Amino acid sequence: MLEHQDEHYEHLARMWDDALEQAELDAAWIVAGEATLFFRDDQGPHFKANAMLGQWVPPEYTNPGTRLLVRRGRKAKLYLPRQADYWHSVAPVPDQLASFLDIEVFATLSELADATTGALPPGTRCALLGAEMPADHGSNEQQVAHNPAGLLNYLDFHRAQKTAFELQMMRNASDVGVKGHLAAAEAFRQGQSEFDIHMAYLAASQQSELDLPYGNIVGLNEHAGILHYQHQDRHRPKQHRSLLIDAGGGYAGYASDITRSYSAEGEAHSRFNALLNAMQQHQDKLLHTIRPGLSFADLHDTMHQQLAELLVDQQLVTCSAAHAYEQGITRAFCPHGLGHLLGLQVHDVGGHLGDPHGTAAPPAEHYPTLRFTREIQPDYVFTIEPGIYFMPYFLGRLRQDKAPIQWTHVDELTPYGGIRIEDNVRVLDQGIENLTRDAFARVEAL
Ligand code: GLY
Ligand code: MN
Ligand code: MN
């Protein structure tokens, strides 16, 4: 048994009991989902199981069609299909979880579907959680609610707070990502292409594209200014000015989400280097502010106030910091949110929930891209990812609006694209555990 695993399952059992009770339900089926195909094709996206199941069973033990039955006061039961398949490998049975889950293996999906029919007595109030309501799911005169909001809100809200076991999975996911990041930094210093940097990342982190929690973002020079740049250029550019790499690691279904920005060395790059240092200090300041009870929406606003000062210090605007903040100039330099919840999904669920009962906590109208607005609590894990970008899209608007920009400096920085520095943090009673920086320290010491 892994460390803290028993507490993790005790926590899950308690939480689901409470969730079902407050939703006035007796049971819930978590449905992994089915493999899908592209339109008129026999190819499809890589199967990814419903993340709700991942909290109970790591994805490497989940075949399409898997279901988990959770009942109040009972041991959860895994319905695992293991159809003979000579095209694909079939996931193994997670025997090591037998003390936490009842596990029944089915030779065919239809046998599994039949077993769902008699699984619950008539009159059971039951939810089915998953993208689709399986057509073959036996009802046995139960009242089945598909994805009831009350249950989902409760579970989503509480998923922010990680168990000791989950935290360890996330430390491991951080180590995976950091191994890739160190290799990517070296590939940048050697003047390699985006594609080569991407491949160096994969090899060092021992991940294939299918293992990645999200597609690698590897941007050299101007490409560092495209937030989710999705290509990897095969050609080495004439000059390496900057690299932004946003790439994560997966471990037992949990993700890390890490960004590092690098500058070429030398006097010619001194303005960008100075900006990079200032951005690191900016991130440090934000990290030091984190404490339980703080609203993440307020911290995001603090980011914009600090960014306004940075724009003044780096002589990128000709106005005051107050003016740059109030006129929304900072939003043209950083149009994304300060961070988001992280866990089984990279942008984890529940970021806009004010409480477990579904009270909405949407971001302010002028911060529409902010994914996390909640009050911070111990053991929440989220990202802190301030950025500054020189995007033609926004610079064009600023020019048109005759905004108070120091254009000579901004024009000098535009070929560098931008900077983002992203760490994953766990909130402590006082301060934080920085999963990302700890992982860099651990892996660099190997
Ligand atoms: N990797 C996507 C993000 O940082 O949110
Ligand atoms: Mn992120
Ligand atoms: Mn990221």
Features:
446 residues; alpha+beta; Creatine Amidinohydrolase, Chain A, domain 1; Creatine Amidinohydrolase; 6-stranded mixed sheet; 3-stranded antiparallel sheet; 16 strands; binds glycine; binds manganese (II) ion
Uncertain spans: none
CATH superfamily of the largest domain: Creatinase/methionine aminopeptidase superfamily
Secondary structure category: alpha+beta
Radius of gyration from CA coordinates: 24 Å
Strand order of the largest sheet: 4-3-2-1-5-6
Helicity, as a percent range: 25-40%
* Ligands, deduplicated: glycine, manganese (II) ion
CATH class of the largest domain: Alpha Beta
Notes on the structure:
It is a single chain. The chain has 446 residues and is an alpha+beta fold. The protein folds into two domains: 5-158, Creatinase/prolidase N-terminal domain (Creatine Amidinohydrolase, Chain A, domain 1, 3-Layer(aba) Sandwich); 164-445, Creatinase/methionine aminopeptidase superfamily (Creatine Amidinohydrolase). The protein has 13 helices and 16 strands. It has helices at 5-22, 51-54, 109-117, 149-159, 164-189, 194-205, 270-289, 296-313, 321-326, 329-333, 392-400, 407-413, 435-444, and strands at 27-31, 67-71, 77-81, 102-106, 125-129, 143-146, 217-220, 242-247, 250-251, 254-255, 258-263, 381-384, 387-389, 418-420, 423-427, 432-434. The strands form five sheets. It has a six-stranded mixed sheet. Strands 7-8-11 form a three-stranded antiparallel sheet, sandwiched between helices. A hairpin with a 5-residue loop joins strand 2 (67-71) and strand 3 (77-81). Helix 1 packs antiparallel against helix 4 (149-159) and helix 7 runs antiparallel to helix 8. The longest helix has 26 residues, at 164-189. The model has no long low-confidence stretch (mean pLDDT 96). Bound molecules: glycine (GLY) and manganese (II) ion (2 copies). One manganese (II) ion binds at residues 257, 340, 383, 385, 422.
